[in-house]
Amino acid sequence: MTYEGFPKGFVIPSLDAVSGFIRTADGVVVAGEPEAATAWFPVNDHPTDRASYTFAITVPNSYEVVANGVPESEDTQGNWTTHVWQAHDPMASYLATFDVGEWTMRTRVTSNGLPVIDADRPRRPAPSASLRAPRTGDPLVPWRASSARYPFESAGGIFPDTRRLGFALETQTRPIYSRYFFPNGDSVIVHELAHQWFGDLVAVHRWQDIWLNEGFATYAEWLWRGHEGFGTTRQTSKAIWRAIPASSPFWDVVIGDPGVENLFDGAVYIRGAMTLQALRDEVGDDAFWTILHTWTETYAFDTGSTDEFIALAEQVSGQDLGDLFDVWLFTPSRPPASAVTGSGVVSASPTATEHATSWLRAFDRRSAP
User: Fold this and answer.
1) Same domain, 207 and 288
2) What is the pTM of this model?
3) Lowest mean pLDDT segment, chosen from 10-24, 58-72, 109-123, 275-289
4) pLDDT for res 13
5) Domain end: 164, 179, 196, which one?
6) Does residue 127 carry a pLDDT above 50?
7) What domain range is 84 assigned to?
8) Is position 369 within any domain?
């Protein structure tokens, strides 16, 4: 198919943010969810329709190009250079990106041979030394790296210095990060890296299943915070339950089917992570991690639904979990204390409470698909 035109960005109502084809002072950034790809090429823009991609982007010689996958070639003709990138791993269309600008490109290879390619603005150090992951064996890979190796051909990040980008996105192999998250952006980096498994490797079958992406990625943030000494995931979940009163509209969102307007509501992220903690408390650590491992193995490069996740959790644990998931995913009210602790007594350490509260405030100020 041959086509031409002038791509444009558009506003995502549930995020109140510019999405799709985003023009910057020195080029362009391509990012958005759930819609993005249709801003710049004809496509069935839905996670159920994956493809591999070859990008051939021609720009003036003074510009750099970064995209998904790995760079394949550069061909300079006069004042113009065509940059070819190849993304061999099939991906959903909204995860496809190419980005043009006056980048500083940083490339390294991990000890097990994984290329890590970062694109950052010149004269500005990459945040957190760019990506501390995905290293097999790194503790931020919370589903135990021995059975969940990083699933793609490359890794890295894109760090545009533009006021027009107000969110982060898990664009496959190379997440994009707003400058507003840094210099203290470790949690966001962990979030987007978690999406490489939960959202990219295993995509949602329908957008109403979005908690399977965002709840898992938020839970990874809690795991990382625990690794950094800020309280266990259980303590964080309890502290958040205590911090958000039952009268808050936060609890009104049915995260198992939030609707278009609430697709990226904070409840989808936070209550989604709390759902995972409730599941972990109910079935125990061994069954919980087996469920997560089996999920990414069974549905790799495919899609999964809430019903399929519940069925898998029940199969692995040997338990009827219908009531648990109904309370956490489909009931528009704050779950009772017994759903948080199993005993009706909700307590959390002062450290966990303090950091959970600060995390909630920070989360309210950000958009991080």
Assistant:
1) yes
2) 0.88
3) 10-24
4) 64
5) 196
6) no
7) 9-132+152-196
8) no
pLDDT at 217: 94
The pLDDT score that the predictor gives to residue 123 is 52
Half-sphere exposure at residue 327, Cβ-oriented, CA atoms within 13 angstroms? 16
64-67 and 98-101 strand pairing: antiparallel
pLDDT at 340: 84
Q: Is residue 286 part of a domain?
A: yes
